[in-house]
Amino acid sequence: MQPIGIFDSGIGGLTVARAVARALPEHSIIYYGDTAHLPYGEKSPALIRRYATQITKELIRLGCGSIVVACNSASSNALDAIREVAGPDVPVIDAVHPVIDAVANRFPSGEIGVIGTRATIDSNWYQRLLEAKGFDVVSKATPLLASAIEEGFHGGEVSDALIAAYFEDDLFKGAQALILGCTHYPLVADQIAASLPKTVALVDSADAAAEALRNALAPVDSADEGTVGPRTERFMVSDLTDSFSLGAERFYGAPVQLEEHKLPSVIS
Ligand code: DGL
After folding, report:
1. Which atom of ligand 1 is nearest to the CA of 76?
2. How far is the CA of 157 from the centre of ligand 1 (A)?
3. 90 shares its domain with 211
4. Which of 169, 190, 205 is the last residue of a domain?
């Protein structure tokens, strides 16, 4: 079985990798965190597309047979380009469509909130897809949250203060659900929930993306039966620092050995 390629701008996408490893425990994983270029949330769509397509090419060159875009900023701005370089035989699962399908299955209509990076919210991608399903949408960019979480500031005063500042307008108080439209946000889900009325359900991308991948791979897996080798995990970053090494385990929920792996063809 070919490994699953998973990528994000940094280590936040490890929340998705963790859900994938749980949903598909027999599959090998190659994770790529583009730590040299984060935050994607502050980059232009053109630059996000350039980074995301180069990583996709590299994951396929390394043997991956499927791609999970574990980054909402890349999913919202680069999905067509990623699919184009992946080609028709490589399933590509993004962070946005599966969570919208999960929301649509659970809530037939009404108001849905979305928070994410600037690149995600400014793309209007969530808003358009949710409105196409008949939802009213309230959205807000919360750009400092991902960087604070990546730095280890979650579960404490710094993230509490950021959440209080971003949510003080009560924008989401009438929503039935709030989509955590950034793969870093599950680490502050409890703090966000505490600042919202109990009537607002929180939904994140990780489990929905893992489930979508499992469905996409089911036919491939049954054709591959009997060819299962030992499962391996490889975690690569484009720039390795101690802080990423320390943070990775928090996101993945298990020990992670990061290795630096440059993409020579990317012009930054
Ligand atoms: N993990 C990225 C996302 O889901 C956000 C972090 C960044 O801005 O690079 O959008």
Report:
1. 10
2. 21
3. yes
4. 205
Q: Is 128 exposed, middle or buried (0-12, 13-18, 19+ CB in 10 A)?
A: exposed
* Residue 43 buriedness (CB in 10 A; 0-12 / 13-18 / 19+): buried
Domain of residue 49 covers: 4-94+207-260
Using 50, 70 and 90 to split pLDDT, how confident is the model at 53?
very high
Structure tokens at 209: 């993306």
For residue 187 and ligand 1, the question of a CB distance below 6 A is answered with no
- For residue 235, the domain's CATH number is 3.40.50.1860
Mean pLDDT for the chain?
Answer: 93
Question: How many angstroms is it from 173 CA to the middle of ligand 1?
Answer: 24
Shared-domain flag, residues 180 and 229: no
Ligand 1 atom with the smallest distance to the CA of 13 is: 1
What per-residue confidence (pLDDT) applies to 225?
A: 61
Give the pLDDT confidence score for residue 268 in this predicted structure.
52
> 77 and 23 in one domain?
yes
Q: Quick one: pLDDT at residue 228?
A: 61
CB distance 8 to ligand 1 below 6 Å: yes
Give the distance (Å) from ligand 1 centre to CA of residue 73: 6
Looking at mean pLDDT, say which of 108-112, 135-139, 153-157, 245-249 comes out highest. 135-139
Using the 3D structure, point to which of 163, 190, 205 is the last residue of a domain: 205
What is the 118 CA–ligand 1 centroid distance (Å)? Answer: 9
pLDDT digit string, tens, across residues 76-123 = 999 999 999 999 999 999 999 999 999 999 998 999 999 999 999 999
Q: Is 117 in the pocket of ligand 1 (CB under 6 A)?
A: yes
Q: Are residues 185 and 248 in the same domain?
A: no
Q: What sign for the dihedral angle of Cα 186, 248, 209, 116?
A: positive
Instruction: Quote the crossing angle between the two packed helices 14-23 and 205-223, to the nearest 10°.
Output: 40
